Amino acid sequence: MSESVVSRVFEVSTGRRERVYDLSGMCARFLREVAGGRDGLLNVFVPHATAGVAVLETGAGSDDDLLALLADLLPADDRWRHRHGSPGHGRDHVLPALVPPHATLPVIGGELALGTWQSVTMVDTNRDNPDRTVRLTFMG
Question: pTM for the full model?
Answer without folding.
Answer: 0.94
